[in-house]
Specification:
By secondary structure, this protein is an alpha+beta fold. The protein folds into 2 domains: about 60 residues, Nucleic acid-binding proteins (OB fold (Dihydrolipoamide Acetyltransferase, E2P), Beta Barrel), CATH 2.40.50; about 120 residues, no CATH class. It contains 5 helices and 5 strands, in the order E-E-E-E-E-H-H-H-H-H. Strand 1 and strand 2 form a beta hairpin. The N and C termini lie far apart (about 65 Å).
Length: about 210
């Protein structure tokens, strides 16, 4: 069965990218899999394709037909990504920022009440920074058509105390906020940390304090 989707990433020099179908699934595209006499694709073009087994056993697009977009999508920089849409005020606060702020306040309350040690706050800060950088790199790689950061790695860092920085980065770069499976996992991880930090702040549980 053939599928249809939009080309969302494309490295013109290397001749590969990714097409996204209506369900939000991304499939690898290589220039060699285009039908004869097809134009070189550009981001925003509509592709019709079949599926074959590609690298590492993952599905990839094959036998590709390209329908050029009416107007080519212009290349974007990281500065363009972080600029809010014209219809949105720069002071608008997204749900991810609200969740990240809530977790930060709960963590501070837990430490002030001596229900959590300072090293826990430092761990959240360190891992949050690492998570934010990973999301930034992944967005940059997406814009430049390079290999992406694994979604599993993004979730793993968020789970390991990086969720505050991860949520803030998703909001800032407007990245990884559409794919249903990724979004659901992100909010499951965030909810887990909210419950954990709320329990610490209320004194229902205590993080282990160092003996030094």
């Amino acid at each position: 069965m053939r599928r249809s989707g939009k080309l969302v990433q494309w490295n013109n020099n290397a001749g590969f990218g990714f097409v996204r179908d209506s369900a939000g699934n991304d499939f690898y595209v290589h220039i060699s899999k285009l039908k004869t006499d097809q134009p070189r694709p550009r981001i925003g073009d509509t592709l019709e394709f079949g599926l074959v087994t590609g690298r590492k056993g993952r599905p990839a697009a094959s036998d590709i037909t390209v329908t050029p977009a009416a107007e080519p999508v212009p290349d974007r920089s990281m500065r363009d990504v972080t600029r809010p849409p014209q219809a949105m005020s720069r002071f608008t606060i997204g749900l991810r920022v609200v969740a990240a702020t809530m977790m930060t306040l709960l963590l501070l309350l837990a430490m002030m009440a001596q229900h959590a040690p300072l090293w826990l706050g430092a761990t959240y800060a360190l891992m949050g920074t690492a998570s934010a950088l990973l999301y930034r790199f992944d967005k940059f790689y997406a814009l430049s058509g390079r290999w992406r950061v694994s979604e599993t790695n993004l979730h793993l860092v968020d789970l390991c105390f990086g969720t505050i920085g991860g949520l803030a980065a998703q909001e800032l770069y407007r990245h990884k906020t559409v794919k249903p499976a990724f979004v659901a996992t992100t909010w499951a991880i965030a909810l887990l940390h909210v419950v954990w930090l709320a329990a610490l702040a209320l004194g229902w549980v205590h993080a282990a304090l160092p003996l030094i």
